[in-house]
Design goal:
Strand order of the largest sheet: 1-2
Shape: elongated
Radius of gyration: 23 Å
Number of strands: 2
Distance between the termini: 50 Å
Number of domains: 1
Strand content: 5-15%
Number of helices: 4
C-alpha cells in the first residue's frame, strides 16, 4: 500500500476526505473506474499490514488445511485437568 500526503491547499481532495471521515465515499473516475475512499483506524492498518505478511499468511493457509483436531476432553486429559 502506498501513502500519499494531501496538501492543505488541495481543496477538492480535502472535501472528499472530510466526507470520508463521516461515511464511505465511492469515487467514480471519468472512465467509469470506481474507488472506495474510507477512513481507517489503527486496527484497519494493522489488519492490512498483517495481510501483507506473506510468511504469516502462508502459515495460516497451511494450518487451515489441517484436518486433524483434538477434542476439549482430550486436551483436559493431557493437561491432567479431567477431574476438575
Amino acid at each position: 500500500m502506498k501513502t500519499i500526503t494531501v496538501p492543505a491547499n488541495a481543496d477538492d481532495i480535502n472535501v472528499l476526505l472530510a466526507q470520508a471521515r463521516k461515511e464511505d465515499v465511492l469515487v467514480q473516475a471519468a472512465d467509469g473506474a470506481e474507488f472506495m475512499l474510507t477512513a481507517i483506524d489503527d486496527f484497519d492498518e494493522e489488519l492490512a499490514r498483517t495481510r501483507r505478511n506473506a510468511e504469516l499468511m502462508a502459515l495460516l493457509e497451511e494450518r487451515a488445511k489441517q484436518t486433524v483436531t483434538v477434542s476439549l476432553d482430550a486436551v483436559k486429559r493431557q493437561l491432567g485437568l479431567s477431574g476438575r
